[in-house]
Amino acid sequence: MTTHTLLLLPGDGIGPEIMVEVKKVLAWFNARGTVSFETDEDLVGGAAYDAHGKAISDAAMDKAMAADAVLFGAVGGPKWDSVPYDVRPEAGLLRLRKDMQLFANLRPAICYPALADASSLKPEVVEGLDILILRELTGGVYFGEPKEITELGNGQKRAVDTQVYESYEIDRIARAAFELARTRGGKVTSMEKRNVMKSGVLWNEVVTQAHADYQDVKLEHMLADAGGMQLVRWPKQFDVIVTDNLFGDMLSDVAAMLTGSLGMLPSASLGAPDPETGKRKALYEPVHGSAPDIAGQGAANPIAMIASFAMCLRYSFELVAEADLLEKAISAALDKGLRTRDIAQKGEATISTSQMGDAIVAELDALSA
Ligand code: NAD
């Protein structure tokens, strides 16, 4: 039996609380004896700053580079709001993304039938929704140089951010999109602003070229602003959406709201496949932050974290049956009406973080009995 190695980085706030629930799921799979996971754990974010004076230690980074996959909780909180910029909690996550070269960020937006009423859109628009937003994560305007604010000497200032993409960066994310679409609905929608941005023209061109190798997948191009509109008008028209760092940041947050709560949303960040082993470096994390407002109350929803582990099973270990089983267990717990505070309707009874974790493990038992 292959043993998969995982580095757990719980982080701050509710991060450690939701990671405890993933450990229950890991223990369940290990006890079942068909797959084996070996875990190590380390500090990240504010917790690492308190211990080492930086947001992730070199030793933890080495572990992350060596592990088959990293499970990341969340970082940050008011305690660290005034620490120096370079060692702020988020710097730990940015270093992981940079050193592991995680260029592809996958954010599924799945609307569980039991939660269709919790969306701000009409239930018929979101019920059964299952789309995947693939955001380029390491290039574009967040990283392009020059990036500066200069004094113009006349009391005015000038701010510059630079949107830069090279064709290889677009090609590799496009190929990741086509490969993912093959495992899903077989359709990719590429979004850019080729009408006003040169980077959009190149994006469109390179995605179209890469498509030549994936003729079994349907490709459509959409301007990103129109895409935003379509995403709230009729999101079920999409399967995989591929877009750049900036548009992806915004569009994936829009898609997040389609499904109800931040506490439900998993994500994955993947690197390029290793030429020899074909394995990709990968980090899995909930979309939400450390939720300091509810930390320590047992009120956090662990589903985004547990569903992030389901993505890990699927994309890092190709354990598709196990991933399906875990997602079904989450759905079954919701079907029974179990709700943490964030997904409860007014007047509905709620359960705690650990009760939700236990309920999902109980559903794993029931589904595999
Ligand atoms: P947040 O995502 O932490 O919280 C936003 C709101 O959603 C809060 O009301 C919170 O209680 C709720 N929420 C979030 N996750 C939940 C869950 N699992 N269950 C129930 N409710 C949940 O965003 P924020 O308040 O803007 O940021 C808080 C801190 O987290 C900040 O320090 C911020 O920098 C950091 N942050 C970290 C990450 C990350 O680690 N990847 C991402 C975003 C924000």
Question: Explain this structure to me?
Answer:
The structure is a single chain. The protein has twelve helices and twelve strands. With 369 residues, it is α/β, with parallel strands linked by helices. It has two domains: 1-103 and 271-369, Isopropylmalate Dehydrogenase, CATH 3.40.718.10; 109-262, Isopropylmalate Dehydrogenase. Strands 2-1-3-12-11-4-5-10-8-9 form a ten-stranded mixed β-sheet, sandwiched between helices. The longest helix is centred in the N-terminal third of the chain and has 18 residues, at 15-32. The protein is globular and about 65 Å long. The mean pLDDT is 95. The structure holds nicotinamide-adenine-dinucleotide. The site of nicotinamide-adenine-dinucleotide has 20 residues, from loops.
Features:
single chain; 369 residues; Isopropylmalate Dehydrogenase; two-stranded antiparallel ribbon; 12 strands; 22% strand
Walk me through the topology:
Blueprint: E1 3-11, H1 15-32, E2 36-41, H2 46-52, H3 58-66, E3 69-74, H4 90-99, E4 104-110, H5 123-126, E5 130-136, E6 144-151, E7 157-162, H6 167-182, E8 187-192, H7 198-211, E9 218-223, H8 224-233, E10 240-243, H9 245-258, E11 266-273, E12 280-286, H10 303-315, H11 320-335, H12 353-367
Parallel strand pairs: 1-2, 1-3, 3-12, 5-10, 8-9, 8-10
Antiparallel strand pairs: 4-5, 4-11, 6-7, 11-12
Helix pairs in contact: 1-10, 1-12, 6-7, 8-9, 10-11, 11-12
